[in-house]
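Title: Prediction job returns without error message
Component: structure pipeline
Severity: low
Priority: P3
Assignee: unassigned

Description:
Job completed but the reporter wants confirmation the result is attached to the right record. Sequence as submitted:
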Amino acid sequence: MHGAHVEVAAFGACEAVWDKPFDEGDFDLTDIVAGSGMRVRGTEVVFVSAGSTVDRLQFLVDGDDFYISNSLPCLLAAARAEVSPCYTEYYPDFASVVKGINEYKRSIEYS
């Protein structure tokens, strides 16, 4: 499932710009990507986020189902999930990215 402007190719799918030819699909091999995508290499799938700290990929694991998206509302809709109104740390958790790569909150788990 993907948005209307996502480019789908033999190498995977993306809505992205990078500094190499599109047909090579090597957006997973560069540090600077505007956009995001999914790259298939052999039996592995690599999900690529934008090259900035404010554009992230979110994922959700529900049993055997795995969802990943660059949009939290779209991820929640696809997974038929919702945020907990009782969890009060969403803002500090997402804002923790300003603490740097070694200090930010990597996951949110609640029941």
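Comment from assignee: result matches the submitted record. The chain has two helices and six strands.
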